[in-house]
Amino acid sequence: MANEVNAVAIAKVRVWLEANEKSIQWLADQIAVSKALMGHILNGERQFLPKRMVQVANVIGVTTQELLTPDHTEEKEYTLSLRGKADSRIAKRHLNILLHAIENSRQLEKALAKVER
């Protein structure tokens, strides 16, 4: 079974092959390995060795770093911990303002991430 780094690289290679209408045989020919070996690598049954990653990255026109880096990072949820009580009307109002500001910030982050893609 492929490790996490291999899984990222394998997924990117598979997407590239499909997008460019290339076969596993074509890729194997480009890096001078057998179709069977390339198939095993792309199925996670064989280790995607660094030497092969460099060769594949060169063939598909990306850097090795781009091949190994996930396209997106997992969004982490914010946690807000408050101590004490919000008994007064003003304290509750301030808490609501804070919650709205946090939500607006999250929406802006998502919009910015879309623009950067």
TrEMBL record:
Residues 27-67 form the HTH cro/C1-type domain. InterPro entries: Cro/C1-type_HTH, Lambda_DNA-bd_dom_sf. Gene3D superfamilies: lambda repressor-like DNA-binding domains (1.10.260.40). This is Plasmid maintenance system antidote protein VapI.
